[in-house]
Amino acid sequence: MNRRTFNIVLATAAASSLVGCASAAGPGGRRRTLLYQSVGEQLTHWDVDVDNAALTPRASIRMPSNVQYVWPHPSRPYLYVSTSDAASGNAPNPGTVHRLCAVRVDASGALQMHGEPRALPQRPIHNSVDATGTYALTCYNNPSNVTVHRINLDGTIGPPVPQISRIDVGIFAHQVLTMPGNRSAIMVTRGNRPEATKAEDPGALKIYHFQDGQLSPLANLPVGGKGGLGYGPRHLDFHPTQPWVYVSVESQNQLHMHRLQGDGLTPEPAYNKSTTIGTYGIDFPQSAGGIHVHPNGRAVYVSNRANATVEFNGKRVFRGGENNIAVFSIDQSTGEPTAIQHADPQSFHVRTFSIDPSGRILVAASIVDMLVRDGNDTRLVPAALSVFRIGDDGTLRFVRKYDVDLGGKFQWWSGFVGLPAAG
After folding, report:
1. Which domain holds residue 350?
2. b/e for 338-354, b at 16 or more Cβ within 10 A?
3. What global pTM score does this model have?
4. Are 391 and 397 in contact, with CB atoms under 8 Å apart?
5. Is 176 part of a structural domain of the chain?
6. Where are the alpha helices (DSSP H) in 148-215?
7. How many domains does the chain divide into?
8. CATH of the domain at 190
9. What is the pLDDT of residues 142-189, one digit of tens each?
10. Could you check whether the bond before residue 64 is cis, i.e. omega within 30 degrees of 0?
């Protein structure tokens, strides 16, 4: 049994995951892999033909507000979807409709709401479920915060768990999940880049004891020796079999590798690698994004994102920078990542991507349309789902892309799901 949920090891060998788990079977005993994708408040089911690296769109459901993130129950056919009508980042629009929703996945992959959504205090940016499927953890970026909700026996979302301990939630939380062992949780807090009128906010990895839905202080890791300044982490992922943790450092365009240490991490990374081909100053809008370790543990992938524009012939066109999926091979004795490829998704600003449970294809979702220069004219590159075949060495081969009509929204999230085995 593969212990991965959206390519993140949750904790115990007994935990079986909807995502990254190849135990589900369809008609005739064949495994069934699905892809889900959001545009605004619409969450859409896509059938997946892994052999031919092809996707087929099916039905959509409408969530209470724009989808922010999605996470599956570790063993039952439910997705937990966070939504908000707030603006992204540090924008001043706080919104009013913030929800955590349980969604049931039927045998065909179709979705339906499961119970009443729970109101959240502000815009959620990431959510996950612990290895036992008992608790849903949600983090918030502005201001930084984290909540825990109990998951009822029927899969619906229960009330929030009142927290006893006071914890340090950092600045601009971006990811929260339970650590291997399920005895601790980690929250990645990005901080903020410096601006003309505002100093830099420090980033850190915040680690908490986790028991019976309660979070309490365990460790604060402001990596880099400057109190978290010059350190802007976004997401992390765990190796499936080794005590290695890989962190995408957004603001510095870096990939860090830490080692697990008890229920926490080593305070500083063992390895620090650039995710980009070029070198960019902190003032240039170039950012590392999502991160996933291949199910076989031999490669790790990080998205590089740029979508700033400049004026050209009265239109706003792409300013420059890198949009690619950086591929790193992993040394199987040390865990050291080495860049071997930067694969072009033929689209702009890949916010999320995922790897199918068998490890054979990767799908990247770009969030925006982009005008680019084409000689003295311009052409539109629409947002897309870009499909890659994964080679035996972990490298990516572009196969096709599916253009996505955004309708003024963002394609904020996408991810593979493996249906659980009948039983």
Report:
1. 4-418
2. ebebbbebebbbbbbbb
3. 0.93
4. yes
5. yes
6. none
7. 1
8. 2.130.10.10
9. 999 999 999 999 999 999 999 999 999 999 999 999 999 999 999 999
10. no
